[in-house]
Amino acid sequence: MAVNAAPSGKAPAGRLAGRWVPWLVIGLWLVLAAGMVPLSGKLSSVTTDSAVDTLPAGAESTKVAALDDSLPGGEDSTFVFVYHRAEGLTAADRAAVQRHYDTLAKRYPAKTTEAGDEDDEGSPTSLSTDRKAMTFTLDVSSVYGPPEELVGPLRDAAKDRPSGLELEVTGPGAIDGDMDAVFDGIDEQVLLTTIAVVTLLLILTYRSPVLWIIPLVAVGAAALTSMGTVYLLVKGFGIVVNDQNSALLTILVFGVGTDYALLLIARYREALHHHENVRGAMVHALRGAAPAIVASAATVVSGLLCLLVADLNSTSGLGPIGAAGILCALVAMLTLFPVCSWCSAGGSSGRPSRGSARPWRRSRGCGDGSAPPSTAAGGWRRSARSESSACSPWGWRATLPPCGNRTSSCPCRSRSPASPFCASTSRSSAASR
Description:
The chain has helices spanning about 20-40, 45, 50-55, 60-70, 90-105, 115-120, 145-155, 170-185, 185-205, 215-235, 245-270, 280-305, 315-345, 380-385, 420-430, and strands at about 75-85, 125, 135-140, 165-170. By secondary structure, it is mainly α.
Protein backbone atom coordinates (compact mmCIF):
# COMPACT_ATOMS: atom_id res chain seq x y z
CA MET A 1 0.00 0.00 0.00
CA ALA A 2 1.50 3.36 -0.97
CA VAL A 3 2.30 5.87 1.75
CA ASN A 4 1.55 9.56 1.40
CA ALA A 5 -0.01 8.96 -1.99
CA ALA A 6 -1.37 11.94 -3.77
CA PRO A 7 -5.19 12.04 -4.02
CA SER A 8 -6.55 10.53 -7.19
CA GLY A 9 -7.10 13.04 -9.98
CA LYS A 10 -5.41 15.83 -8.05
CA ALA A 11 -2.11 17.35 -9.25
CA PRO A 12 0.77 17.28 -6.76
CA ALA A 13 1.69 20.46 -4.96
CA GLY A 14 4.05 22.91 -6.60
CA ARG A 15 4.09 24.58 -9.93
CA LEU A 16 6.61 22.10 -11.31
CA ALA A 17 3.89 19.48 -11.21
CA GLY A 18 1.69 21.40 -13.63
CA ARG A 19 0.76 19.42 -16.68
CA TRP A 20 1.95 22.10 -19.07
CA VAL A 21 5.43 22.49 -17.56
CA PRO A 22 6.97 19.27 -19.00
CA TRP A 23 5.77 20.05 -22.50
CA LEU A 24 7.04 23.60 -22.19
CA VAL A 25 10.46 22.29 -21.15
CA ILE A 26 10.54 19.89 -24.09
CA GLY A 27 9.55 22.70 -26.44
CA LEU A 28 12.29 24.96 -25.11
CA TRP A 29 14.86 22.21 -25.57
CA LEU A 30 13.72 21.67 -29.14
CA VAL A 31 14.18 25.37 -29.85
CA LEU A 32 17.58 25.28 -28.17
CA ALA A 33 18.59 22.22 -30.18
CA ALA A 34 17.60 23.92 -33.43
CA GLY A 35 20.07 26.69 -32.67
CA MET A 36 22.86 24.67 -31.06
CA VAL A 37 23.14 21.73 -33.44
CA PRO A 38 24.47 23.86 -36.33
CA LEU A 39 26.89 25.62 -33.95
CA SER A 40 28.18 22.33 -32.54
CA GLY A 41 29.21 21.24 -36.02
CA LYS A 42 31.35 24.37 -36.36
CA LEU A 43 33.46 23.62 -33.29
CA SER A 44 36.05 21.72 -35.32
CA SER A 45 36.57 24.79 -37.51
CA VAL A 46 37.87 26.85 -34.55
CA THR A 47 40.13 24.19 -33.00
CA THR A 48 43.84 24.77 -33.42
CA ASP A 49 47.06 22.95 -32.52
CA SER A 50 49.39 25.73 -33.67
CA ALA A 51 52.30 26.44 -31.34
CA VAL A 52 51.66 30.18 -31.63
CA ASP A 53 48.11 29.73 -30.33
CA THR A 54 48.74 27.17 -27.59
CA LEU A 55 51.97 28.56 -26.08
CA PRO A 56 51.99 31.56 -23.70
CA ALA A 57 51.78 34.85 -25.56
CA GLY A 58 54.79 36.36 -23.77
CA ALA A 59 57.11 33.37 -24.13
CA GLU A 60 60.19 33.75 -26.32
CA SER A 61 59.45 30.48 -28.10
CA THR A 62 56.06 31.86 -29.10
CA LYS A 63 57.64 34.99 -30.54
CA VAL A 64 60.17 32.90 -32.49
CA ALA A 65 57.38 30.71 -33.89
CA ALA A 66 55.40 33.79 -34.93
CA LEU A 67 58.44 35.31 -36.64
CA ASP A 68 59.17 32.04 -38.39
CA ASP A 69 55.66 31.95 -39.80
CA SER A 70 55.93 35.56 -40.99
CA LEU A 71 59.24 35.05 -42.85
CA PRO A 72 59.19 34.20 -46.58
CA GLY A 73 58.95 30.45 -46.88
CA GLY A 74 58.07 30.06 -43.21
CA GLU A 75 54.86 28.29 -44.15
CA ASP A 76 56.60 25.78 -46.41
CA SER A 77 56.53 22.11 -45.48
CA THR A 78 59.89 20.32 -45.46
CA PHE A 79 59.98 16.64 -46.41
CA VAL A 80 63.09 14.46 -46.10
CA PHE A 81 63.36 11.37 -48.33
CA VAL A 82 65.67 8.66 -46.97
CA TYR A 83 66.58 5.72 -49.25
CA HIS A 84 68.57 2.81 -47.88
CA ARG A 85 69.66 -0.72 -48.78
CA ALA A 86 71.40 -2.98 -46.28
CA GLU A 87 73.82 -4.38 -48.89
CA GLY A 88 74.71 -0.94 -50.24
CA LEU A 89 73.13 1.24 -52.90
CA THR A 90 73.59 0.26 -56.53
CA ALA A 91 73.94 2.52 -59.53
CA ALA A 92 70.31 1.85 -60.39
CA ASP A 93 69.31 2.88 -56.87
CA ARG A 94 71.17 6.19 -57.10
CA ALA A 95 69.65 6.86 -60.53
CA ALA A 96 66.16 6.19 -59.14
CA VAL A 97 66.75 8.62 -56.28
CA GLN A 98 67.86 11.34 -58.68
CA ARG A 99 64.86 10.65 -60.93
CA HIS A 100 62.45 10.95 -57.98
CA TYR A 101 63.93 14.29 -56.98
CA ASP A 102 63.71 15.70 -60.49
CA THR A 103 60.09 14.58 -60.83
CA LEU A 104 59.00 16.02 -57.48
CA ALA A 105 60.93 19.26 -57.96
CA LYS A 106 59.06 19.85 -61.22
CA ARG A 107 55.70 18.91 -59.67
CA TYR A 108 56.16 21.18 -56.63
CA PRO A 109 58.39 24.07 -57.77
CA ALA A 110 59.36 26.76 -55.31
CA LYS A 111 57.43 30.04 -55.41
CA THR A 112 60.57 32.15 -55.93
CA THR A 113 64.05 31.20 -57.09
CA GLU A 114 66.99 33.51 -56.71
CA ALA A 115 69.59 33.69 -59.48
CA GLY A 116 72.62 31.52 -58.89
CA ASP A 117 70.97 29.32 -56.25
CA GLU A 118 71.14 26.18 -58.34
CA ASP A 119 74.89 26.66 -58.99
CA ASP A 120 75.65 27.28 -55.31
CA GLU A 121 73.59 24.43 -53.88
CA GLY A 122 75.35 21.64 -55.77
CA SER A 123 73.80 18.19 -55.93
CA PRO A 124 70.41 18.03 -54.18
CA THR A 125 71.00 14.41 -53.12
CA SER A 126 73.41 13.30 -50.42
CA LEU A 127 75.09 9.87 -50.19
CA SER A 128 76.17 8.44 -46.84
CA THR A 129 79.82 7.55 -46.19
CA ASP A 130 79.05 3.81 -46.06
CA ARG A 131 77.13 4.15 -49.36
CA LYS A 132 74.11 2.40 -47.85
CA ALA A 133 71.77 5.41 -47.64
CA MET A 134 70.92 8.40 -49.78
CA THR A 135 68.72 11.39 -48.95
CA PHE A 136 67.33 14.60 -50.38
CA THR A 137 65.18 17.39 -48.96
CA LEU A 138 62.10 18.83 -50.64
CA ASP A 139 60.48 22.10 -49.57
CA VAL A 140 56.85 22.29 -50.68
CA SER A 141 55.00 25.59 -50.55
CA SER A 142 51.75 25.84 -48.63
CA VAL A 143 49.97 26.88 -51.82
CA TYR A 144 49.96 23.18 -52.80
CA GLY A 145 48.06 22.23 -49.68
CA PRO A 146 48.60 21.34 -46.01
CA PRO A 147 51.07 18.59 -44.99
CA GLU A 148 48.35 15.98 -44.43
CA GLU A 149 47.31 16.34 -48.08
CA LEU A 150 50.87 16.22 -49.42
CA VAL A 151 52.50 13.35 -47.57
CA GLY A 152 50.40 10.67 -49.29
CA PRO A 153 51.02 11.80 -52.90
CA LEU A 154 54.75 12.26 -52.16
CA ARG A 155 55.08 8.70 -50.94
CA ASP A 156 53.10 7.39 -53.92
CA ALA A 157 55.34 9.29 -56.35
CA ALA A 158 58.41 7.44 -55.03
CA LYS A 159 56.97 3.93 -55.30
CA ASP A 160 58.65 3.36 -58.67
CA ARG A 161 62.05 2.20 -57.44
CA PRO A 162 64.25 -0.93 -57.70
CA SER A 163 63.29 -3.98 -55.67
CA GLY A 164 64.87 -4.01 -52.23
CA LEU A 165 65.39 -0.25 -52.08
CA GLU A 166 63.55 0.97 -48.99
CA LEU A 167 62.22 4.50 -48.59
CA GLU A 168 61.14 6.50 -45.56
CA VAL A 169 59.56 9.95 -45.94
CA THR A 170 60.11 12.02 -42.81
CA GLY A 171 60.87 15.60 -41.83
CA PRO A 172 58.63 18.25 -40.24
CA GLY A 173 56.07 18.13 -43.04
CA ALA A 174 55.69 14.34 -42.95
CA ILE A 175 55.47 14.32 -39.15
CA ASP A 176 52.75 16.97 -39.17
CA GLY A 177 50.86 15.12 -41.89
CA ASP A 178 51.02 11.78 -40.06
CA MET A 179 49.95 13.41 -36.80
CA ASP A 180 46.97 15.03 -38.48
CA ALA A 181 46.04 11.69 -40.05
CA VAL A 182 46.15 9.99 -36.65
CA PHE A 183 43.90 12.59 -35.02
CA ASP A 184 41.62 12.96 -38.03
CA GLY A 185 38.11 12.03 -36.93
CA ILE A 186 39.13 11.55 -33.30
CA ASP A 187 36.08 13.50 -32.11
CA GLU A 188 33.72 11.08 -33.83
CA GLN A 189 35.65 8.07 -32.52
CA VAL A 190 35.65 9.39 -28.97
CA LEU A 191 31.93 10.19 -29.20
CA LEU A 192 30.98 6.72 -30.45
CA THR A 193 33.20 4.99 -27.89
CA THR A 194 31.78 7.10 -25.06
CA ILE A 195 28.21 6.38 -26.13
CA ALA A 196 28.92 2.63 -26.26
CA VAL A 197 30.51 2.60 -22.78
CA VAL A 198 27.75 4.72 -21.21
CA THR A 199 25.05 2.58 -22.83
CA LEU A 200 26.61 -0.58 -21.44
CA LEU A 201 26.85 0.91 -17.96
CA LEU A 202 23.24 2.10 -18.04
CA ILE A 203 21.99 -1.31 -19.18
CA LEU A 204 23.91 -3.03 -16.39
CA THR A 205 22.70 -0.47 -13.84
CA TYR A 206 19.00 -0.38 -14.75
CA ARG A 207 18.87 -4.06 -15.81
CA SER A 208 16.57 -3.07 -18.63
CA PRO A 209 17.13 -3.03 -22.39
CA VAL A 210 14.95 0.10 -22.77
CA LEU A 211 15.44 2.53 -19.87
CA TRP A 212 18.99 3.47 -20.91
CA ILE A 213 17.59 5.41 -23.86
CA ILE A 214 16.15 8.23 -21.72
CA PRO A 215 19.40 9.22 -19.94
CA LEU A 216 21.36 8.80 -23.16
CA VAL A 217 19.04 11.16 -25.06
CA ALA A 218 19.34 13.80 -22.32
CA VAL A 219 23.12 13.47 -22.14
CA GLY A 220 23.38 13.66 -25.93
CA ALA A 221 21.38 16.89 -25.92
CA ALA A 222 23.71 18.26 -23.25
CA ALA A 223 26.78 17.30 -25.31
CA LEU A 224 25.50 19.06 -28.43
CA THR A 225 24.55 22.12 -26.40
CA SER A 226 27.98 22.23 -24.77
CA MET A 227 29.73 22.07 -28.15
CA GLY A 228 27.66 24.98 -29.42
CA THR A 229 28.33 26.93 -26.23
CA VAL A 230 32.08 26.38 -26.52
CA TYR A 231 31.97 27.57 -30.12
CA LEU A 232 30.29 30.80 -28.97
CA LEU A 233 32.92 31.20 -26.23
CA VAL A 234 35.71 30.88 -28.80
CA LYS A 235 34.10 33.49 -31.03
CA GLY A 236 33.23 35.85 -28.20
CA PHE A 237 36.23 35.59 -25.87
CA GLY A 238 38.96 34.08 -28.03
CA ILE A 239 39.71 31.06 -25.84
CA VAL A 240 41.96 28.40 -27.35
CA VAL A 241 40.45 24.99 -28.13
CA ASN A 242 42.62 22.18 -29.44
CA ASP A 243 41.66 18.68 -30.52
CA GLN A 244 42.45 17.23 -27.10
CA ASN A 245 40.21 19.70 -25.25
CA SER A 246 37.39 19.06 -27.71
CA ALA A 247 37.60 15.31 -27.08
CA LEU A 248 37.74 15.81 -23.30
CA LEU A 249 34.57 17.92 -23.48
CA THR A 250 32.57 15.01 -24.89
CA ILE A 251 33.87 12.55 -22.31
CA LEU A 252 33.26 15.00 -19.47
CA VAL A 253 29.65 15.75 -20.42
CA PHE A 254 28.71 12.09 -20.87
CA GLY A 255 30.37 11.04 -17.63
CA VAL A 256 28.90 13.81 -15.49
CA GLY A 257 25.46 13.59 -17.08
CA THR A 258 25.27 9.84 -16.50
CA ASP A 259 26.30 10.33 -12.87
CA TYR A 260 23.55 12.90 -12.32
CA ALA A 261 21.00 10.62 -14.00
CA LEU A 262 21.85 7.69 -11.72
CA LEU A 263 21.45 9.84 -8.62
CA LEU A 264 18.15 11.32 -9.78
CA ILE A 265 16.67 7.96 -10.76
CA ALA A 266 17.64 6.47 -7.40
CA ARG A 267 15.62 9.21 -5.67
CA TYR A 268 12.79 8.78 -8.17
CA ARG A 269 12.54 5.07 -7.42
CA GLU A 270 12.36 5.83 -3.71
CA ALA A 271 9.66 8.45 -4.29
CA LEU A 272 7.50 5.97 -6.22
CA HIS A 273 6.96 4.09 -2.94
CA HIS A 274 5.18 7.09 -1.48
CA HIS A 275 3.54 8.68 -4.53
CA GLU A 276 1.12 6.98 -6.88
CA ASN A 277 1.21 10.12 -9.02
CA VAL A 278 4.38 10.06 -11.15
CA ARG A 279 4.56 13.85 -11.29
CA GLY A 280 4.56 14.03 -7.53
CA ALA A 281 7.26 11.35 -7.38
CA MET A 282 9.46 13.23 -9.84
CA VAL A 283 8.98 16.55 -8.03
CA HIS A 284 9.90 14.84 -4.75
CA ALA A 285 12.98 13.29 -6.38
CA LEU A 286 14.07 16.64 -7.79
CA ARG A 287 13.70 18.35 -4.44
CA GLY A 288 15.80 15.67 -2.81
CA ALA A 289 18.51 15.23 -5.44
CA ALA A 290 18.83 18.69 -6.99
CA PRO A 291 20.73 20.30 -4.06
CA ALA A 292 23.38 17.57 -4.12
CA ILE A 293 23.66 17.68 -7.91
CA VAL A 294 23.95 21.48 -7.98
CA ALA A 295 26.57 21.43 -5.20
CA SER A 296 28.59 18.81 -7.04
CA ALA A 297 28.45 20.77 -10.29
CA ALA A 298 29.42 24.01 -8.55
CA THR A 299 32.44 22.33 -6.99
CA VAL A 300 33.66 20.93 -10.30
CA VAL A 301 33.05 24.20 -12.15
CA SER A 302 34.95 26.16 -9.51
CA GLY A 303 37.90 23.80 -9.79
CA LEU A 304 37.94 23.96 -13.57
CA LEU A 305 37.84 27.75 -13.62
CA CYS A 306 41.07 27.76 -11.60
CA LEU A 307 42.78 26.69 -14.82
CA LEU A 308 42.27 30.21 -16.14
CA VAL A 309 45.46 31.28 -14.34
CA ALA A 310 47.57 28.77 -16.32
CA ASP A 311 50.22 30.13 -18.67
CA LEU A 312 49.58 27.70 -21.50
CA ASN A 313 46.67 28.89 -23.60
CA SER A 314 45.55 25.31 -24.23
CA THR A 315 45.43 24.64 -20.47
CA SER A 316 43.74 27.91 -19.54
CA GLY A 317 41.15 27.30 -22.27
CA LEU A 318 40.30 23.92 -20.76
CA GLY A 319 38.79 25.70 -17.72
CA PRO A 320 35.86 27.47 -19.41
CA ILE A 321 35.44 24.56 -21.83
CA GLY A 322 34.97 22.07 -19.00
CA ALA A 323 32.82 24.49 -17.02
CA ALA A 324 30.51 24.96 -19.99
CA GLY A 325 30.19 21.20 -20.35
CA ILE A 326 29.36 20.72 -16.66
CA LEU A 327 26.74 23.48 -16.67
CA CYS A 328 25.08 22.14 -19.83
CA ALA A 329 24.95 18.65 -18.32
CA LEU A 330 23.50 20.09 -15.10
CA VAL A 331 20.73 21.98 -16.88
CA ALA A 332 19.86 19.02 -19.12
CA MET A 333 19.70 16.49 -16.30
CA LEU A 334 17.56 18.74 -14.09
CA THR A 335 15.12 19.76 -16.83
CA LEU A 336 15.07 17.55 -19.92
CA PHE A 337 15.82 14.24 -18.23
CA PRO A 338 13.04 14.51 -15.57
CA VAL A 339 10.34 15.45 -18.08
CA CYS A 340 11.39 12.68 -20.46
CA SER A 341 11.23 10.20 -17.58
CA TRP A 342 7.84 11.60 -16.58
CA CYS A 343 6.48 11.26 -20.13
CA SER A 344 7.73 7.67 -20.38
CA ALA A 345 6.16 6.75 -17.05
CA GLY A 346 2.77 8.40 -17.02
CA GLY A 347 2.26 10.90 -19.80
CA SER A 348 0.13 13.99 -19.28
CA SER A 349 -2.39 12.25 -17.06
CA GLY A 350 -0.07 12.38 -14.07
CA ARG A 351 -0.78 8.75 -13.20
CA PRO A 352 1.28 5.84 -14.52
CA SER A 353 -0.24 4.06 -17.46
CA ARG A 354 -0.51 0.30 -17.39
CA GLY A 355 3.01 -1.08 -17.08
CA SER A 356 4.68 2.25 -17.88
CA ALA A 357 6.10 2.92 -14.41
CA ARG A 358 6.79 -0.74 -13.70
CA PRO A 359 10.44 -0.64 -14.81
CA TRP A 360 11.15 2.24 -12.45
CA ARG A 361 9.53 0.31 -9.61
CA ARG A 362 11.39 -2.93 -10.31
CA SER A 363 13.43 -2.76 -7.11
CA ARG A 364 10.62 -1.73 -4.76
CA GLY A 365 11.09 -4.69 -2.42
CA CYS A 366 8.38 -6.34 -0.31
CA GLY A 367 5.07 -5.06 0.91
CA ASP A 368 4.09 -3.22 -2.27
CA GLY A 369 1.78 -5.76 -3.74
CA SER A 370 4.22 -6.98 -6.37
CA ALA A 371 5.35 -10.53 -6.80
CA PRO A 372 8.21 -11.55 -4.51
CA PRO A 373 11.63 -11.90 -6.13
CA SER A 374 11.57 -15.67 -5.74
CA THR A 375 8.68 -16.00 -8.20
CA ALA A 376 10.09 -13.63 -10.84
CA ALA A 377 11.20 -14.98 -14.18
CA GLY A 378 13.48 -13.72 -16.89
CA GLY A 379 17.13 -12.80 -17.07
CA TRP A 380 16.76 -9.25 -15.77
CA ARG A 381 14.63 -10.29 -12.78
CA ARG A 382 16.94 -13.19 -11.96
CA SER A 383 19.77 -10.64 -11.83
CA ALA A 384 17.70 -8.44 -9.51
CA ARG A 385 16.80 -11.45 -7.33
CA SER A 386 20.42 -12.44 -6.90
CA GLU A 387 21.31 -8.85 -6.00
CA SER A 388 18.56 -8.55 -3.39
CA SER A 389 19.29 -11.89 -1.70
CA ALA A 390 21.27 -10.34 1.16
CA CYS A 391 22.20 -6.94 2.58
CA SER A 392 25.82 -5.95 2.00
CA PRO A 393 27.74 -3.82 4.55
CA TRP A 394 29.25 -1.89 1.65
CA GLY A 395 25.92 -0.53 0.38
CA TRP A 396 25.65 -3.09 -2.45
CA ARG A 397 21.88 -2.60 -2.57
CA ALA A 398 21.94 1.16 -2.94
CA THR A 399 19.31 0.91 -5.67
CA LEU A 400 16.83 -0.81 -3.32
CA PRO A 401 14.89 1.92 -1.46
CA PRO A 402 13.44 1.40 2.01
CA CYS A 403 9.93 0.03 2.00
CA GLY A 404 9.06 1.10 5.55
CA ASN A 405 7.13 -2.10 6.40
CA ARG A 406 7.07 -3.53 9.91
CA THR A 407 6.15 -7.08 9.05
CA SER A 408 8.47 -9.87 10.10
CA SER A 409 8.56 -11.19 6.53
CA CYS A 410 10.14 -8.02 5.18
CA PRO A 411 13.87 -8.50 4.54
CA CYS A 412 14.45 -4.96 5.80
CA ARG A 413 13.69 -6.18 9.32
CA SER A 414 16.56 -8.69 9.24
CA ARG A 415 19.27 -6.30 8.12
CA SER A 416 22.30 -6.00 10.29
CA PRO A 417 22.43 -2.69 12.22
CA ALA A 418 26.17 -2.60 11.57
CA SER A 419 25.55 -1.99 7.90
CA PRO A 420 25.85 1.67 6.88
CA PHE A 421 23.16 1.20 4.25
CA CYS A 422 20.81 -0.45 6.74
CA ALA A 423 21.35 2.38 9.18
CA SER A 424 20.37 4.95 6.58
CA THR A 425 17.41 2.77 5.64
CA SER A 426 16.18 2.72 9.23
CA ARG A 427 16.46 6.47 9.51
CA SER A 428 14.61 6.97 6.21
CA SER A 429 11.84 4.62 7.28
CA ALA A 430 11.45 6.38 10.61
CA ALA A 431 11.29 9.74 8.91
CA SER A 432 8.63 8.57 6.48
CA ARG A 433 6.52 7.21 9.31
